[in-house]
């Protein structure tokens, strides 16, 4: 069914959540065989443990959200921690000679309006 090496198929399948393994096994005999193999189970357990570890780290860090702010006529991306109140800069959109006066947001898109009333 696939020309991918078995190891690569194992890698891809190991990224799936445990709840999806039943559907994967019923897809084809080869995937059924792969998902029941020792090396797959070992790899999948490693992926699951790594995911759980990252989740615990994130919980310890607090509740973070990303926000876009207008600071000194520049657009900045900031990380705001709601559990342990703090704000950290992540990055800026720097355009020399362009001073942003307003940012409008709709459905994940941003419209930046300059001091000269140009739209970006």
From TrEMBL:
Stretches for region Disordered: 42-61
Domain F-box, chain residue ranges per copy: 1-44
PROSITE patterns in UniProt: FBOX (PS50181)
Pfam families: F-box, FBA_1
Domain of life: Eukaryota
Source organism (scientific name): Microthlaspi erraticum
The protein's name: F-box domain-containing protein
